Amino acid sequence: MSAPELENAPADSDEEVPAGFAASIGVAQRAGGLVVPVLTAVLAFLAGGIVVAVTGHNPWTAYKGIFDGAGFNWLFHIPWDTNTIHLSAFNLSQTLLITTTLILTGLAVAFPFRCGLFNIGGQGQYLVGLVVANWVGVSLAGWPTLPHVLLGIVAAAFAGAAWAGIAGFLKATTGAHEVITTIMLNWIAIWGAQYLFGQGGPLQNTQNPAAPESGTITGSAHIPVFWGSSVLQGLDYGFFIALAALVVFHFVLNRTTLGYEVRAVGFNADAAAYSGINVRNKYIQAMAIAGAFAGLAGALDMLGYLFQFGVLDVQASQIGFLGIAVALLGRNTAPGVGIAAFLFAGLLYGTTRGLNPNVFDPGLAGNLTSMIQGLIVLFVGADIFILYLWNARRKLRVQKRAEAEAAA
Amino acid sequence: MSNHAQMWTGGRSALRPRTVAIAGSILGLLAFWCAIPPFTVRSPFVPIFIGVLAIAAGLWAVTRGTRRAGWGAIASGVIGIGLGLLATRSSSANLQVVFASDLIAQVFVFATPLTFGALGGMVSERSGVVNVGLEGMMLMGAFWGVFGADKGGNWTVGILAALLAGGFFALLHAVWSIHLRANQIVSGMAINFLALGVTGYAFEQVYGNENIPAGVSTVPNVAIPGIDHMKYLGPAIGDLNLLIWVGIAFVPLSYVILFKTPIGLRVRACGEHPRAADTVGINVYAVRYAAVITSGMLAALGGAFLSIGYGGGSFTENMTEGRGFIALAAMIFGNWRPFGAWGAALLFGFSTALAFRLPVYSGSAATLFQALPYVLTLIAVAGVIGRSTPPAADGQPYVKQ
């Protein structure tokens, strides 16, 4: 996964090459769209490193610790060092588990973004998928594995789609801003999940009524593991479903009528409406598809390795919000989201459970992740400025030409 | 969906539909209020009777064109009857626990961070900059507030530090959304993530091993002489935190500044039509910078209330727990107006305070109750009960020609 794949990413716009500083950066972006995201990530890690250094820690050992914690050292391991192999392989499998989730929550942000919608509701849609998958996994004991897992996945994806569809529907019918509605839906889902799994809730563990957590899904609903031990939270086949989702995302967006229309609405909703595209429908469809991705993420987590979820887990979960950073860093393209998800998953696992506490304090490291995440989103925001300027210049030129023609 | 008919009907007569509708809304509240302590009416007919009056008043107003307030009165009447009936059927002892008079004090406690945040969000959005970074600015205020109070030895230093920290992050948001013309929602979310990381990291770094020492200087309570020992008023408002009163004072203050002074006119002009504002000589960029920074400082005060106000000198990672987002919801629910936002903050504060006491009835229902503010806001933005309309140029970067 490197430059050649990214070069196939769709260019954001196509017109003659203008001169100037912003334009030259813009050209660099279009030459693979690689320069700015890489620069963004490097800058954010550099800033994080400075913070680590200023507070009296060694940034080199901290980042090395995170790198090893994420299991990235497995890629460079020495074949006869069996000790490192075991630990780093395990860490890498855990990083890939999180990559699975982040790919899907990232796509949940990226797809509506291409339609001109900002989906902040990935967290809520993820939780809805998680809850539904848990419900299916717990309640249909005795089913064979394949239909049980499939039903759980499909039901969760539909539930996520319906949840996000509320925001799309409100946008289409009343014009309610999707950012506001998805934020509200997030919190409704967060409190709803706490109610369902909490003491006295309908989905609470029946074996232990004192514990505020969900029931444990039956063995038939477990997605089989292909790397590592199924007892030790190995990597399950859900990883391939996430990779397939990347392909589906790329195909739908670039090779189907729906994708064409979605992108048309994203570029200019008025022009799309004028050319006969049903913009309202696209809003609903784009949000529903996004919700399906996020719901799928919830299902793969629940059926893949979580198996149960507690009220405290609901409160602590941030994975859906991380999808925003993944999508923005990945420039809302399939290959970009894949790479960004892998990076953030490594960062997330490498700063928490994977990190050796003797190397760097996990309490600090976990917050370093939030900081780097914030910086990346911030810098990507400044990158949008460059594109904006570029388009504004173009609009301005078109405007001036039109004015000149009107005057003539 | 404002209806111009209300201008024509009634005129100056005492029975203006709007007045009747507001009276109806108050009656709806009364239908519930009569059934809880200190009155505790046990007969179910009293709340029904008062509630029906409220609904009738609402219907009368709706037929005369005052739809928004009228439907509000009808909703208030229906909810009043429902809650009133529930109250008459529940045991008197439980009611005493839930509706003790310090409930009012607790409503203020929960509403105050929301009030500061909502007013802050309003100032920023009225000038045309969307601020979804309220949560992060609040969190900055919470940590640096307690840090300043601890290291500076005095809560005033803490407040100052909170203002600086919130203002600094707001400045960041302002530069990004005004100067760099970045997507304001992206930049706001970045502020949230960044604040979570920065405060968490700083907390671990400074206090990680031994937590915040006890006896940090905190914002004092204001005991009102004469009222603090009265029977019902005493526990309710006799001994509230200074920041609660400051928050309440900021509501009319921001109303006057925003709607009755030239400064406020300028801010609103930048949010509605920046080009027109620019044409008459208003510096749109300067106004927006000032508004966003003020917004961050207000949100930070809300955060400081959590740590060194009511919180008594404490901090935990992610202390705000989404209060910035409820503040955003309160601002929208209050239709970008100071008293509306305050009313929404009180309503949300009330629902949170109630949720903390409802476990005497049912623990799980109390959890579900916490989602109420968000459901209400969702209904409000969907325009079921009167549409919420943001400032026209909200979220649009301005390009000088």
Structure description:
The complex is a heterodimer of chains A (408) and B (401). The termini of chain A are far apart. Chain A is mostly helical and 408 residues long. Chain A has one domain (3-407). Chain A has a two-stranded antiparallel ribbon. Chain A has helices at 3-7, 21-30, 35-54, 59-69, 82-114, 122-139, 145-174, 178-197, 238-255, 257-267, 269-274, 279-306, 311-316, 319-329, 334-351, 362-407; strands at 225-227, 235-236. Chain A is 71% helix and 1% strand. Chain A has 16 helices and 2 strands. In chain A, a hairpin with a 7-residue loop joins β1 and β2. In chain B, α2 runs parallel beside α4 (67-89), α3 (45-63) packs antiparallel against α4 (67-89) and α7 runs antiparallel to α8 (155-179). Chain B has a two-stranded antiparallel sheet. The two termini of chain B are 34 Å apart. At the A-B interface, α8, α14 and α16 of A face α9, α15, α17 and α18 of B.
Summarize this structure as a short list of keywords or feature phrases.
heterodimer; A: 408 residues; mainly alpha; 2 strands; disordered N terminus; B: 401 residues; ABC transporter involved in vitamin B12 uptake, BtuC; 1% strand; globular
Write the layout of secondary structure elements.
The complex is a heterodimer of chains A (408) and B (401).
Chain A: H1 3-7, H2 21-30, H3 35-54, H4 59-69, H5 82-114, H6 122-139, H7 145-174, H8 178-197, E1 225-227, E2 235-236, H9 238-255, H10 257-267, H11 269-274, H12 279-306, H13 311-316, H14 319-329, H15 334-351, H16 362-407
Antiparallel strand pairs in A: 1-2
Chain B: H1 5-8, H2 17-33, H3 45-63, H4 67-89, H5 92-98, H6 102-126, H7 134-152, H8 155-179, H9 184-207, E1 221-223, H10 233-238, E2 239-241, H11 242-260, H12 262-272, H13 274-279, H14 284-309, H15 323-333, H16 338-357, H17 363-369, H18 372-382
Antiparallel strand pairs in B: 1-2
Helix pairs in contact in B: 2-3, 2-4, 3-4, 6-11, 6-14, 6-15, 6-16, 7-8, 7-9, 7-14, 7-15, 8-9, 8-14, 11-12, 11-14, 15-16, 15-18, 16-17
